[in-house]
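To whoever is on call:

I kicked off a structure prediction for a single chain this morning and the downstream step that reads the tokens threw a length-mismatch warning. I double-checked the sequence; it's 67 residues and nothing unusual in it as far as I can see. Pasting both halves so you can look.
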Amino acid sequence: MINLERRFGPLPLRVWGLVLNFFGNALAIYGAIGVIRDGSRLPLLLIGGCITLLCIVILSKPSAASR
């Protein structure tokens, strides 16, 4: 399993996952705006949704300190 408390650069992997989740959310919202407005940007909506879902699944593992 992935050790989310391991440091990668200046921050732990859990923090990098949250940054990626934020990017996925922004991409999904940008795609949703395009779909609602004129039917375009559906691929961006789907990619952003998949990134967000993947981050939620991986980051939902509790940290060792909370056990």
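Update from on-call: the warning came from a stale cache, not from the record. Cleared it. Sanity check on the structure: The chain has a mean pLDDT of 93.
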